[in-house]
Amino acid sequence: MFRALLARWKSSLRLFQPAQVNAQRAKISVAELGHSYANKVVALKNVNLNIRSGEFVCLLGPSGCGKSTLLYALAGHVTPTGGTVAIDGKSIRGPGPDRLLMFQEAALFPWMTVLGNLKFALAARGVPRADREPRAREFIRRVHLSGFENSLPHQLSGGMKMRASLARALAVDSAVLLMDEPFGSLDSQTRVHMQELLQSIWLRTSKTVVFVTHDVHEALMLGTRVVVMAPRPGRIVKDLEIHLPMPRSAEDARLDEMARYLRMLMRRVEGPEGTLPPPRSSSQEEADLRH
User: Fold this and answer.
1) Structural domain span for residue 112
2) β-strand 208-213 against 90-91: which pairing, if any?
3) Shared domain check, 195 and 79
4) With contact defined as beta carbons under 8 Å apart, do 253 and 220 qualify?
5) pLDDT at 24
6) Exposure b/e, 65-98, CB count within 10 A at least 16 = b
7) Could you tell me the maximum CA-CA distance found in the chain, to the nearest angstrom?
8) Out of 25, 159, 279, 291, which residue is the most buried by the measure of CB atoms under 10 Å away?
């Protein structure tokens, strides 16, 4: 039984490959990024990350590893205390129309209908008045909310609110979509439905997505890459491409084996004072699988 488990685990590891992205060819480039808050907490230290146009990159790690700080630096809502962040070779100095940040909460205007929320966002982006309603209705249709255009947010379920928020994010057509655990507050079944919806939309649009999560399965379900982060201080410890065809199913057994490896990796990298443990032999890795 153990040999069969080990064979499946080794097979799953072949679906991971170290990501190698040249900064000159990157859509998003982060170099030697550091950030310390006023209370002296070091949120990020020496973070380097290059992301190609059209990639779906998941930032994965426990609370306190700097995932959201990195995302907000990309959004322009956090000014790092060190290093550089750039999109298309231009330094980020604040929020811009080329990026859209989607939060864990739907953040819809409660006094506006679903259609009204989308039209307002389009107006704020300078879309001509005549184009706003047709475009809003098209993206409402894409997230399967047709028939709820005139509903107010309090009349929608949690999953429907997130679909409306996703429709709004897609309608403004920013080149980069930044997502901060957008499905974290949903029940497990609704969460899987939202993951499947987002995956299908990404396959259609090929937008550049940076997605923060602490859920290993979610990262493997959605990402073309998974960037594993660890705290004390916040840093990147692994940047792995996922060589598993899209679309993916939550029931794919390969995701379970890959998740097992990532969870083991995350346990190992949380050393004291932010130090990484020494390299391990294959026999040590096999021993871990017995537990």
Assistant:
1) 99-173
2) unpaired
3) yes
4) no
5) 84
6) bbbbbbbbbbbbebebeebebbbeeeebeeeeee
7) 66
8) 159
- The answer to whether residue 290 is domain-embedded is no
> What are the pLDDT digits (tens) for 269-290?
765 544 444 444 444 444 443 3
112 and 5 housed in the same domain: no
- Both tokens assigned to 89: 């070779």
pLDDT tens-digit series, residues 118-157:
999 999 999 999 999 999 999 999 898 999 999 999 999 9
Whether residues 169 and 179 fall in one domain: no
Number of compact structural domains in the chain: 2
Same domain, 194 and 145: no
Q: Measure Cα distances from 259 to 1, 13, 256, 265 in Å.
A: 19, 10, 5, 10
User: 85 - beta bridge partners?
Assistant: 30
Instruction: Answer yes or no: do 168 and 43 share one domain.
Output: no
Query: What Å distances lie between residue 284 and 67, 204, 274, CA to CA?
Result: 29, 42, 22
Contacts of 83 by beta carbon, 8 Å cutoff, 6+ apart = 30, 31, 32, 33, 34, 46, 47
Judge if 147 and 77 occupy the same domain: no
